[in-house]
From TrEMBL:
Keyword Oxidoreductase: yes
Top-level taxonomic group: Archaea
Protein name from the UniProt record: Dehydrogenase
Organism of derivation: Haloquadratum walsbyi J07HQW1
Keywords, alphabetical: Oxidoreductase
Entry's family note: Belongs to the short-chain dehydrogenases/reductases (SDR) family.
Amino acid sequence: MTSTPEQLAGVADVDCTGMQALVTGSTSGIGRATAIALGRLGADVIVHGRDASAGADVVDTVTAYGADAQFIAADFADVEAVRELAATVRSTTDGIDLLYNNAGGVFRDGQLTSCDVEYTFHINHLAPYLLTTELLDYLNTDARVVTTASAAHQGASLDIDRTRSVDNHSAFWAYNHSKLANILFTTELAQRLDISDHTATAVCVHPGAIPGSGFTRFLPGPLPRIVQSLEVLPGVTSVNDGAAELLFAGISSQTTDYSGKYLAGQQLKEPSSDARDDAAARRLWQESANILDITEPLNNLPDNKKTRPGVDINVTE
Ligand SMILES: NC(=O)c1ccc[n+]([C@@H]2O[C@H](COP(=O)([O-])OP(=O)(O)OC[C@H]3O[C@@H](n4cnc5c(N)ncnc54)[C@H](OP(=O)(O)O)[C@@H]3O)[C@@H](O)[C@H]2O)c1
């Protein structure tokens, strides 16, 4: 019998009753499996994506377990839609305990968004940055922000200028760069939360290589079929395994001290040196605010900020 994500994460006995979870990108793939698992564990779940019928299906599945669920549609390419998503969360809940920044993907065609940045950077980084900052004062005590990054960040260096153009667009460069941004965002968010005495924490996760999700649908030509056929290869994991990574990061008692860290294989991992670059993390945070034309969130940092939040724990490469 197939194991559930909560069994795979060792959190099947965690009672999430009374928790409010927002899982972006939960109409499909690992977000969908995470939302359903959280509902099974008793959490009330906000399902997000663009596909209303897929969203309704997830809501029905969660409510069948006795938890509350609602679907909120928001296209992450649309800044106002992200703000409306945050506003709806505020008007329909008492606060958020778990924010999963999971929506995203690899996008074949190069195009600029209304913010004059490349689409992948906007969907995978800028939209979750905006959503998180819109909900900062709505995160409950000890809330956790979990962002789905990727091992694909390896080899990428922060280059915000390159995201302002789609000349010589490379879908894979754009994806890898956006996943680097997810890690830099997480470390900077964790540090700023800590310095602001906010009790919320932030972690990011590589969920595994999961061709069985909807991840490959935007790839060109025969690539989706080819990648999906890799599902039987060693090193490749299932949608439930990927959701288990997200659950472990979000609700396991083992990860409460991991703020600012990067997890993979349900353990701490050292991300690339570019992903550990404090100056790049700070630059990304500030530039993201500039691009969105908002005041820099959590901007009470001392100029000489040096410390990282969280504890010193053995980390594997
Ligand atoms: N699969 C892998 O091997 C793998 C590896 C490392 C990291 N990841 C990361 O895991 C996360 C989830 O991916 P997945 O593998 O589960 O793929 P998936 O099945 O394609 O799920 C992607 C989710 O993101 C949502 N989404 C995509 N574009 C959106 C947009 N413009 N606005 C709002 N929502 C949007 C989709 O919802 P709608 O279609 O309803 O809009 C869907 O729910 C992504 O961040 C991905 O980068 C995946």
